[in-house]
Amino acid sequence: MNTKFLITSTLVASLASTSFAWTYTNLHPSGASVSFGDGAGGNTQGGRANIGGVIRAGMWTGTASSWVDMHPAGASISEVWGVSSVSQVGYAQIGTTSHASLWTGSAGSWVSLNPSGSLGAVAYAATPTNQIGNTYMFSTVLASLWSGSAASWVNLNPTGSTASEAWGGSGSNQVGYATLGGVQEAALWSGTAASFVSLHPGGASSSRGHESDGSQQVGYAVVGGASHASLWTGTAGSWVDLNPSGATSSTAWGVLGGYQVGGAVIGGAQRASLWNGSAGSFVDLHSFLPASFSNSVARSISTDGVNYYIVGGGLNTATGRGEAILWTQAVPEPVTALTLGVGLLGLPRKRRLSGKGAKS
Q1: What confidence score (pLDDT) does residue 351 get?
Q2: What is the reported pLDDT for 333?
Q3: What is the largest CA-CA distance in the chain?
Q4: CATH 2.120.10.30: does it fit domain 20-324?
């Protein structure tokens, strides 16, 4: 018996058991007419809810009753788009101006990130140290990076680009798109405009990056006229088409530790989706929802070391409204391999040494 193979296979099988034990939680807060989850960080989820006719930014910690209203004073609309372990980002509409926004858990913590001279801005993603999004300036949209204040703004728009947007990132890089020669190309940066790398795959008519975990980037590429959920590892040549069998289109929105989340249109309806690096690894997260949900999408994935959290939303035909959704699964325990290894020590010595991996 090859015990090294057995131990490794046990761990891989455990990690790959993404089609089992996903628990559904409805995050729709009391009094809301519509809600949606956009971002996740640790055990916190961020998004928006329409309460009293106003779209309001907010956050949850795993239940509908945990909703915290973060709508800043003076705003007509606000939304949370991204969440890190320490902060939340999005935008707030004040007067006629959209303000890229930073919060640390409450409405009173709100900070505007709009740089001097901008006509408006939006923040889409947060890391513990940075905020990532777009600024409207010089008659175009510019991919943007901040580190906690309006004055920290960095213009990521690369040379030759007529427009760009940054949608996600990790502590070391940012992803989005840049328009070059009239083509929207998925883009990767590492903190400066000069660091721009095109992720645009051959054969695609357009592409966009949505999120990065530092190792992988996800988004979409338009191939044959249809959007295909896409995965990269830092170069255009690394592109992997995640569009599952039977899907007419798909998009990937979030990535974490080898897992990708998004949505795929199957049978005319969008279904929240999970992948593990290939089209064939597709898991239909929609199947874990009550039958009253007609469509759904997964927008972000996070972990606190205890559970995986996937946040998004779907249309509940029983209530006639869009509702924020959370899928949860326990993180496989590393002790699985340790326990297996200890158990193998109890085997007769001759049999234990017969595998090539017995000494590993």
Answers
A1: 30
A2: 77
A3: 78
A4: yes
**Mean pLDDT value of segment 78-100:** 98
- Global pTM value: 0.89
Taken in order 130, 136, 141, 142, is the CA torsion positive or negative? negative
- Would the CA dihedral through 239, 180, 81, 294 be positive or negative? negative
pLDDT band of 20, cuts 50, 70, 90: low
pLDDT at 39 over 90: yes
Question: 49 and 29 in contact (C-beta within 8 Å)?
Answer: yes
The three state secondary structure string of the chain is CCHHHHHHHHHHHHHCCCCCCCEEEECCCCCEEEEEEEEEECCEEEEEEEECCEEEEEEECCCHHHCEECCCCCCCEEEEEEECCCCEEEEEEECCEEEEEEECCCHHHCEECCCCCCCEEEEEEECCCCEEEEEEECCEEEEEEECCCHHHCEECCCCCCCEEEEEEECCCCEEEEEEECCEEEEEEECCCHHHCEECCCCCCCEEEEEEECCCCEEEEEEECCEEEEEEECCCHHHCEECCCCCEEEEEEEEEECCEEEEEEEECCEEEEEEECCCHHHCEEHHHHCCCCEEEEEEEEEEECCCEEEEEEEEEECCCCEEEEEEEEEECCCCHHHHHHHHHHHCCCHHHHCCCCCCCC
Count Cβ atoms within 10 A of the Cβ of residue 2 and give its class: 0-12 exposed, 13-18 middle, 19 or more buried: middle
Q: What is the separation of C-alpha 221 from the centre of its chain, rounded to a whole number of angstroms?
A: 17
Please write the tens of the pLDDT for every residue from 165-215.
Answer: 999 999 899 999 999 999 999 999 999 999 999 999 999 999 999 999 999
- Residue 280 has a pLDDT of 98
Task: Kindly list the domain boundaries of the chain, sorted by start residue.
Answer: 1-17+332-360, 20-324
